[in-house]
Specification:
Strand order of the largest sheet: 1-3-2
CATH architecture of the largest domain: Up-down Bundle
CATH superfamily of the largest domain: GntR ligand-binding domain-like
Order of helices and strands: HEHHEEHHHHHH
Number of domains: 2
Radius of gyration: 19 Å
Largest sheet: 3 strands, antiparallel
Strand content: under 5%
Distance between the termini: 17 Å
CATH class of the largest domain: Mainly Alpha
């Protein structure tokens, strides 16, 4: 596989260097659509160092940390690769995500302000049922932002940390499947119902709808996705 072309900018060496390199690399890896192509994307230490404006040593240290967290794997004499999960693993991750995000939705009803929740509705103001398919890339990005926002509005740091390592895979799988079988059209309907439950501060309904929404993705992946091993 060719080296992955991560979007990186030079780091100010006056910052806490190791931490900043780790954060930049992690953000860049999480922005990659890793299931858009077959095979794992290779990370070239030299290219990463040049892009960040640093030596290879702190890049290598950051990659070790990212490997410990399950984002990449290192193969002797071949290099570091962004991990692609197998289908069984993805299905398990969606199940765990459903549990985390549904609890996050419950917490949103308890901790988010009305203004916070209104931002969720505004995300979709520019879409209607007929436009979603025609603007699928734009809608896909909004869809990802919606699910991130639910986690963030929960105001639960631990829950967000637990979800963080799942996000790279959930983001990519959602991007790859949102255009399948009218899923985008159903997605926006599901989101509107979730937002209504959050606005009504109905924790039970919000939790159930978010869980069902994720489990519907699990069913779709199990039955129709063929690009996973």
């Amino acid at each position: 596989m060719p080296a992955a072309a991560l979007q990186l900018e030079p780091i100010d060496t006056g910052e806490a260097l190791k931490s900043r390199i780790y954060v930049r690399l992690k953000e860049a890896i999480c922005s990659v659509n890793i299931y858009a192509e077959t095979g794992e994307s290779r990370l070239d230490e030299r290219q990463l160092g040049e892009a960040l404006g640093v030596s290879r040593t702190p890049v290598r240290e950051a990659l070790v940390r990212l490997e410990q967290e399950g984002f990449i794997r290192t193969i002797p004499r071949k290099g570091a690769f962004i991990i692609r999960k197998k289908k069984k693993e993805i299905l398990e991750m969606i199940t765990v995500w459903a549990a985390l995000e549904s609890m996050a939705a419950r917490l949103v009803t308890e901790h988010a302000t009305d203004g916070d929740i209104s931002t969720l509705r505004r995300m979709f103001a520019k879409f209607d049922g007929g436009e979603v398919k025609a603007r699928i890339d734009e809608y896909s990005a909004t869809n990802i932002s919606f699910h991130q926002a639910i986690l963030q509005l929960s105001r639960c740091e631990l829950l967000n940390r637990l979800a963080e390592n799942l996000f790279i895979h959930m983001r990519s799988i959602r991007m790859q499947t949102i255009g399948d079988r009218d899923r985008a059209k159903q997605s926006i309907i599901d989101h509107m119902h979730i937002i209504e439950a959050l606005e009504n501060r109905d924790a039970d309904v919000a939790e159930r709808l978010v869980r069902e929404h994720s489990l519907n993705l699990e069913t779709h992946v199990a039955q129709h996705v063929t690009f996973l091993n």
